[in-house]
């Protein structure tokens, strides 16, 4: 069993700090811990994994709050025209993110810095910071603890990762519902991500991370489909890149990825349960984003861009050039060459083939068609 007071005290003792910067995180943490204790059916490693993830969120929150007390100027940092890659899971967002990361003028949430943001990275030591080596050690253990993960997701200490890490610090993160079967928390999170002003905390951390190493932010996370209204509230000049893929492919792929994440933390893996969880998530993501985009795009003309998975895989350059054009910055020859080198070094299937079938997760074709019927018509997609 996870005990909240023990988790809080462990973070205090680890950091020597006690100010969590308010109590806004307490209800999300309470709901998360209750769901983990009552729904997730954790094994011993699952308990340890949950403890470690929660501890990281609490300890980092303490460190950020403490740093901001002595560096209030961080709050004055301007985040200008960030690019948010907001496609559904398994639609090519990761490859796009990694290619854009090759441009040294872009700032991404590189794993080592996002996991260890205090003190903020310095431009002069950005490629030699000792935190990089420590993060590499953690990445090296990934396949041992999560067999099959490296075949499904690009991961590296100096590579970009998703914004879920920023929201782990106020416990409004989909990381937990991806790792564990916790439907009560997941459903509450989907309904409250924006209602609880989560993107204020998101922006504060971007300000912190860019304060000693400026650049143009390129961010990605499928859960941003829930947060479009808040993104445009806090980043009114943001460029919103929506990636698209035939739904039959993305649904099955996502279920398989979720199974990889969950199977080390619980001895009770129910594929039909994973299928239901995944479909519930896709339903709320899609309906929320499409409604918000229809309402907000007219107020933000020239800030939305659609990229299609199959076209991007066949030829990524038109899509990448469109992002730079929309942002109003040129794609330089050096950056383009670095992206081409990355693409050549990362052919599809490099880390193994990711195999998946829709029927393995008790999802019918009719269910997917019902969920995505309007979506494929709107974006002129095939269902398969």
Structural summary, described in words:
By secondary structure, the protein is mainly α. The model has no long low-confidence stretch (mean pLDDT 92). Strands 2-3-1-4-5 form a five-stranded parallel beta sheet. The protein has 18 helices and five strands. The protein has one domain (79-378): P-loop containing nucleotide triphosphate hydrolases (Rossmann fold, 3-Layer(aba) Sandwich), CATH 3.40.50. The termini are far apart. It has helices at residues 4-15, 26-38, 44-70, 93-101, 111-115, 130-140, 142-145, 164-167, 175-179, 183-192, 198-210, 228-234, 247-262, 271-296, 309-314, 317-327, 333-345, 365-378, and strands spanning 83-85, 106-107, 216-220, 239-244, 304-308.
Structural class: mainly alpha
Give the overall pLDDT as a whole number.
92
The portion of residues assigned to helices is 40-55%
Beta-strand content bin: 5-15%
**Widest beta sheet: strand line-up:** 2-3-1-4-5
Net shape? globular
How would you spell out the order of helices and strands? HHHEHEHHHHHHHEHEHHEHHHH
The named CATH superfamily: P-loop containing nucleotide triphosphate hydrolases
Question: Rg to the nearest angstrom?
Answer: 20 Å
CATH architecture classification: 3-Layer(aba) Sandwich
Number of domains: 1
Distance between the termini: 43 Å
